[in-house]
Amino acid sequence: MRFLCLHGWGTNSDIFEAQTALLRHEIGGGHTYEFVDGPMTWPTQPGIEEAFGEQECCYTYWDPSNAASIEAAVDYLEEFMNSDGPFDGVLAFSQGAALAATLLAKNVKASNGKYLKHPLFKCAIFLSAMRPVDYSALASGEIRMLSRAQDGVIYTIPTSNIWGAKDSQYPGVPEQVSDLCLAEQSTTFVHSKGHEVPMVPGDDLASMVAAIKKIIGLVQD
């Protein structure tokens, strides 16, 4: 399977490639992964250079306070997929997960509110996801976060939601993204770390791999 990979803000594709190296190795299966940088430069996230060394440039997909910027980011990703796709799945962290989920939501619902038969991806892996945005509201300058209460179940493709029990940056946020997924088609796992991707062998990594392999199996079976 071919996966599109989207990093968190204030990092870059090289960092996300390093963050997920062991995870991807353990998933195995001969999958391929394509990493895409955000279109805007952005200050480096705290702790990144201590862990990964000095960075020449870090990026974001959007300015979170600017609706036009979010709209442009979704369009940017959609154009990339049209030119470089198709992709079977998406592997995304934090803001990258929010971007993928926003684009999926835009395409999952037709203008009459019915679910589309052919979503952009066969499966999605969301790591410490931030909340997706209602694309249709962005044109009027409104940044409305999607919610289970208002929008119901949005994602019916196999989806794995993974986040950290000690996430002090966005506590409770990945759970809200998980609530937008069809339960029968999704897996969840809460690891012992914070807003990060566990990068060492152990129980956390093994359970993450099991959760991800389960949803990949739903696509490949």
Features:
alpha/beta, 221 residues, 6-stranded parallel sheet, 9 helices, two-stranded antiparallel ribbon, 8 strands, 16% strand
Overview of the molecule:
Helices cover 38% and strands 16% of the residues. It starts with a strand and ends with a helix. It has nine helices and eight strands. It has 221 residues and is α/β, with parallel strands linked by helices.
- Estimate the helix proportion, in percent: 25-40%
State the secondary-structure class.
alpha/beta
Which percent range describes the beta-strand content?
15-25%
Order of helices and strands: EHHEEHEHEHEHHEHEH
Strand runs, count: 8
Number of helices: 9
- Report, as a whole number of angstroms, the end-to-end distance: 13 Å
Which oligomeric state applies? single chain
- Apparent shape: globular
Low-confidence blocks of residues: none
Main beta sheet strand tally, sense and closure: 6 strands, parallel
Q: Report the mean per-residue pLDDT as an integer.
A: 92
What would you report as the Rg, rounded to the nearest angstrom?
16 Å
Order of strands across the main sheet: 2-1-5-6-7-8
